[in-house]
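User: For a benchmark we're assembling, each entry needs the component sequences followed by a predicted structure for the full assembly. Here are entry 17's components. Please fill in the structure.
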Amino acid sequence: MSATAMPYTSTEMMTIAAARALRNEDVCFVGIGAPSAACNLARLTHAPNITLIYESGTIATRPTVLPLSIGDGELCDTALTTVSVPEMFRYWLQGGRISVGFLGGAQIDRFANLNTTVVGPYDAPKVRLPGGGGAPEIASNCQEIFIIMAQSKRAFVDRLDFITSMGHGRTGRERRALGIKTKGPTRLITDMAIYTPDPETCEMSVVSIHPGITRQQIADSLGWPVHFAKEVNETPLPSAEELEVLRDIQERTRQAHQGH
Amino acid sequence: MAEFMSLRDAVAHCVHDGDRVAMEGFTHLIPHAAGHEVIRQQRRHLTLVRMTPDIIYDQLIGMGCADKLVFSWGGNPGVGSLHRFRDAVENKWPQPLEIEEHSHAAMANAYEAGAANLPFAMMRGYLGADLQLVNPNIRSVTCPFTGEVLAAMPAIRPDVAIIHALRADREGNVLLEGITGVQKEAVLASRRAIVTVEEVVDDFGPTYRNTVILPSWTITAVCVVPGGAHPSYAQGYYSRDNSFYIAWDAISRDRDSFLAWMTRHVLEQGPEAFAVHACSAKTLSAQS
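Assistant: Structure for entry 17:
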């Protein structure tokens, strides 16, 4: 991966850092939006044989443009096979066939619990968000979870009004208490840094800072006191290839979604 | 046996005020034309069931057809909020909307339980999730063999299922291919079923042996409505109109612009208005 002096945006850095986390042998359950961009970037660069699965039932799909929705025809046209939605959730997700679930969310806390349900009380919400969809079971049934989200105080909050899908729980100890054998969120990739859970507390801790970002900037955009791991690296710059492939698929996507 | 009828007659015959109605289609084959007909016939007090209540349920909710929504993900995929759904939940406009919220896995399992004539569904789910604290229909069951505690929810048994399929043959058997979602389960779980189709063919011709075909005798009414899934899509016929999904955000954000759009494009139209979206259907039959 050759470093580049090409200018890039913080969102591009986030997507590229997220893509690098995926391995060629992964079977990945892909959330829509930012996760989908990262997963397809991985497939088009260092992980050509990665198996991408979307909850609409498409298995080993290889879209040439990024889907707007979770079930665009492009996903079915380029898939190895397409199964029904009950089969997808029962046999493939609950069946334990998925190595990585890649999620985004509206809000996250320090233990990587996600809220996509409500801001405010459930019965009288200030903001009604879309809800959980597949996420509650993706969070517990995949062997591990990667999360991609841009940092802001509105999104990275001290206390979630609602846990839509559990990361490491309200105190960081809930997964073990509930007898869950999967690892939960092992990586959080933002537009500023990469976090992994602290081995003792499960609090998400900064292990890598993107080039040009300061510790203070990270602290200022979190709703909780930031925790840095003992050893913190600098995230490698985006390579020319990563930027070109990402921009290429996003441009194709933009043209396709403009439609008629 | 299914009867071929107009969409107008099918909705008049099958969908009644107060019914539990499931319109299914997971991104693909969403029965938009049928939803519009329900709005035109001013059905009221419906319980609407759907995993992903996107634009079609936003329209039904905004037009005051629903008292209750049973769902698992209520957004405009890849675009943002469903503004009419949000307005109903946050501000009770045009009327209060009761919600019963599940996860996708739970809804899929509950449809399957309905089709299988079981009273409830179970799965390994909702672990550590708050939904089980606010939805009394999420309970648990203990495995009699291992002692594992699993999540349980009632089977979904709609009064009527409404789906859009690719085509029917002359006997009223219907065929779906591509992303088939939970449509088979929804139809088999329901008392009555309306299926709109792109076209009727003399013979399905050579099909893959595992193509989803619902026999005529599982369906109440088949209605030929070319383009009837738009702005959703029909694999091999027309693709998803992503630009409309993006446009819906601005149309639906404001109550007045929503009502103006619904008047012009739904109340003052009929099912035939969807035909313009069915451009390539004939080409496809010629090929197959």
